Protein: Histone-lysine N-methyltransferase, H3 lysine-79 specific
Amino acid sequence: TMDKEFRRWMKWYGKKHADYTLERGDFLSEEWRERIANTSVIFVNNFAFGPEVDHQLKERFANMKEGGQIVSSKPFAPLNFRINSRNLSDIGTIMRVVELSPLKGSVSWTGKPVSYYLHTIDRTIQLDKNYYSSPSN
Structure:
């Protein structure tokens, strides 16, 4: 179950966790819009999603509270995302993304290690001049 896997991952990464509630639903249904915006941590297995679903998820996640986190099986923004004048509306401008160390046996559809990505909502990135690349990029 996801509860068992979550506890295993936390142990693997040496992390402690607070009490939590696991919920199952359709991220894109209207009933989840407000809950997503106010959630602390979301897990989404978007490995097989196409660009349209990923885009719709990005729109939902853009409304998450500061410090909200998304763990996904595919990144929603490049790990080396740089803000420039052409991508100011991209979700990468408000999130920091790191790749988590692969965990062997973490999914049922392959025995190979699968990486996960931790996205943290951080709107201060837009204000940090060090994250801006030159307009010629």
The chain has one domain: 26-133.
